[in-house]
Amino acid sequence: MSDHHHITRPVIVQIVPHLNRGGVERGTLEIAEAVVKKGWRAVVISNGGQLEGQLKRIGAEIYRLPVHSKNPLIWPSVRRQLKSVLISLGADLVHVRSRAPAWIAMPVARSLKLPVIATIHSKFIPQSPFKRFYNSRMLKADKVIAISDYVKSVITEHYVQAPPADEITVIHRGVDLDIFNAAKVSQQRIVREAERLSLYDAGAVVILPARATAWKGHEHVIQAVAQLKRDDVTLLLLGAGDGHERFISRLKALALSTGLDGRLRIAKSTNDMPAALMLADVVVMPSVIPEPFGRVAIEAQAMGRPVVAYGHGGAAESIEHGKTGWLARPLDIAELGNCIETALKLGQRRRSAWAKTARAHVSAHFSRSRMCEKTLEIYTEFLQK
User: Fold this and answer.
1) I need a labelling partner for 185 at 20 to 30 A (CA). Which of 2, 90, 168, 172 fits?
2) Is 298 exposed, middle or buried (0-12, 13-18, 19+ CB in 10 A)?
3) DSSP classification of residue 327
4) On the CB side of 175, how many CA atoms lie within 13 Å of its CA?
5) Are 149 and 317 in contact (CB under 8 A)?
6) Could you tell me the pTM of the whole model?
């Protein structure tokens, strides 16, 4: 470990199941970029995915191995391949961000005497003794990072194997304040997004940006906006249009029965989230299961948009109730509606003061650069051991 090239240019290996779109993947990309910026070598091992091109562009090295596999029968062969990759790279540190990679990589890292960092992103509540056993592997890393205080509380509450609470570091997800910056979104981008979503004369717009999964709370927000009985409010479910036909028709039927049908738009997800958020008078995150973190809340605040969420999970940490957004009592649809109503009533002056406060809040606590800095501090600590 004491060869000189390592000390000057450590090799940081992140291992994730896939490289598609999602919080885990985005975090991996952001850390890889920070590692490269620092002049270190960033390596990502996964089973592949859409973000590979982006990783290569920022200067990360990519290896494909079936580290996503939950089949223990193939683990020995994956471990052999992984071991030879880590040796040939001269790896200095391994960072796992998911359970299968932890099961596969940890024994290999141990045999090579490499430190292992584990970031816990997911809903970690064990649904069965087997799940608890499967999940707990990540807690045996040399350092455990949780993406929110909520995730940390789940770990300490449900796992006897968990490290002592003061040894689990919380590093909140970060938003890129250059990209999510209202001042940098051109009128042209906003118009293009408005056209794509056919939101010309929509009056006030309430947006729920989320994947097409029931737990994101689409049905709750339809009922909440319907109860406002306002003809001048359009509800846009951004990303719900990617869902199954069954999911979409259930939402349409609910909108019809609550009288919201003419004012509901169901759209596919966007490639320009900052521009889409510029179209929102209010952004909603009514997840019915607590979000491990909930990136939408900080993206909306960074853009200076009033945000309304249920007050549980990560949202309760990232939103200051009455200052940067509103937290409704979890699963209380009537209160969710009242909060949306309050947000819609902000006058222009209050709204721009609000936007400044919300952006300052995100920039102090939830910036991408802060997330990267704190993660690299942990790397440095282990590299010096």
Assistant:
1) 172
2) buried
3) E
4) 27
5) yes
6) 0.92
* Rg of the chain in Å (alpha carbons): 22
Cβ atoms of 41 and 10 within 8 Å: the answer is yes
CA angle 93-148-60, nearest 5°?
A: 35
- By the 10 Å C-beta count (0-12 exposed, 13-18 middle, 19+ buried), 60 is classed as buried
C-alpha distances in Å from residue 94, one per residue of 102, 113, 117, 263: 10, 10, 6, 49
Closest among 3, 1, 29, 2 to 14, alpha carbons compared: 29
Reported as a single tens digit per residue, the pLDDT across 129-175 is 999 999 999 999 999 999 999 999 999 999 988 999 999 999 999 99
Tokens, residue 64:
């494909």
CA distances from 196 to 193, 238, 261, 266, 318 (A): 5, 11, 19, 12, 30
Structure-token match 């592949």, residue found: 48
Phi and psi dihedrals of 12, rounded to 5?
-105, 120
Angle at 90 (CA atoms; ends 89, 96), nearest 5 degrees: 75
Crossing angle of helices 295-302 and 348-365, rounded to 10°: 120
Bridge partners, 285 (sequence order): 309
Q: How many helices (H) and strands (E) does the chain have?
A: 16, 13
**Alpha-carbon distance 130 to 74, whole Å?**
19
330 closest CA partner among 283, 299, 282, 289: 289
Q: What is the pLDDT of residues 32-65, one digit of tens each?
A: 999 999 999 999 999 999 999 999 999 999 999 9
- Per the listing, tokens 């090579």 go with 112
Instruction: Measure the CA–CA gap between 315 and 329, rounded to whole angstroms.
Output: 12
Other beta carbons within 10 Å of 72: 10
Q: In this structure, is the dihedral angle defined by the CA atoms of residues 288, 294, 295 and 300, taken in order, positive or negative?
A: positive
First CA to last CA distance, the chain: 10
- Which residue in this structure is represented by tokens 């290896």? 63
